[in-house]
Amino acid sequence: MSEGCKPILIAGADYSAAIKQPNPTWLALFEVLAASGAEAKASSVPSRIKKGTVQEKRNNFLHLRLTSLENVGSDRLFNALTEARPLITGLDFPFGYPASFLDWIDRRRTGEIRNAGEIRNTGEIRNTEEIRNTGEIRNTGEMRNAAETIDSRERKPGCSAGHDWQLTRKLASMAFSELEAAVIEFARTTKPEPLRLTDRLVSPKGTSPLHRINPGLLKMTWQGAGLLLSLKSAGFRIAPFDDEISHGPETAPEVLEIYPSALLKWLSLPNRRYKGAGATAMETRKEIITTLSRSSGTVLPLPKLHTVNSCRSRQLKLDIKPSLRQQCLADDNALDGVIAAIGAAISLIAPGAVSPASLEASPELSHQCHLVQREGWIYTPCLLKP
């Protein structure tokens, strides 16, 4: 990396929806280091980074140094990310809601329009004489057929349908009490609590974004949607909702959903009982952070990231100085921020291993791949069985 150039960064954050600020939202920033010697012969810095593009190319090695680990709080996370502008960021919160809930919201919205008497004819709307002039409906050009309010994208085959950002904005703009009341009403219509497709596939299985207590994922999903909308407006690509051309330049920074527990399990590290202040949790965190990095820098082999054509393991080298390791030991949220960043780094080394595109080749799941664009995707390696 030439002198004077801005370093290439990879970020991770463990998001919190707690009211108190700064709440425990830890942001980890890793700097990408140039490979040298034997490392350079293996593969050097990923070509995706070396050329400054976001093209998905296979690479074998990535060397990272943790330069910053700070509890910025959720209220300052947007500013911190837009200032640092990392190439790729892993965030630990659900990026979307289960499709069944989104469908229910659409149906309820249709019913509210009809019950308000804003539409005289409850059947199909064929002309402007059937619509009274209201503050919400001004002309037929602003309105789709009210009998087909449910997003038509859910009926399209394949994984290429776009995300309904309009509905995302609607849900994010609700008062949380209004959203919570809607979720409670929806819960009366369905048992058990619905999961997203990605929550069902990941291991350990994810918790529904509609879950309200221990963990309070509903509030986290609601607040997180506001962050995603702000990052999108600032030029970040929100995966998997935005396609490659949504922001124009190939160098648009990318944001991914990461589930630290699933990533730890895939790395054959303890993924349970590391949260909290107790002695067992502290000892478990010590095992995790010691395995991930030593003061001299350790190479973390990723043996499952290989192809039929190449059996050589891809590797991730992490340098974490003792003071930052101590922060991970002291606070599980800080460790989760580091794990989220590592998940983002793995997506650079082997994007094909974490991509939802593999759903299309699955006989059991290909018919559900349209759900990814509606609900979101957890970017964890080997989420699907070969």
What this model shows, in words?
This protein is an alpha/beta fold and 386 residues long. It has 14 helices and 8 strands. The chain has helices at 38-42, 47-50, 74-84, 99-115, 165-173, 176-187, 197-201, 217-233, 260-266, 279-292, 322-330, 332-349, 351-354, 371-375, and strands at residues 9-14, 26-33, 61-71, 88-91, 237-238, 254-257, 298-302, 314-319. The chain has an 8-stranded mixed sheet, sandwiched between helices. The longest helix is centred in the C-terminal third of the chain and has 18 residues, at 332-349. The radius of gyration is 22 Å and the shape is globular.
Low-pLDDT sequence parts:
37-45, 51-59, 119-158, 244-249, 303-313
Rg, rounded, reads 22 Å
Q: Roughly what is the average pLDDT, rounded to an integer?
A: 78
C-alpha geometry = globular
Largest sheet: 8 strands, mixed
- Strand order, largest beta sheet: 5-6-4-1-2-3-8-7
What portion of residues is helical?
A: 25-40%
Percent of residues in beta strands?
A: 5-15%
Total helices: the number is: 14
The string of secondary-structure elements, in order, is EEHHEHEHHHHHEEHHEEHHHH
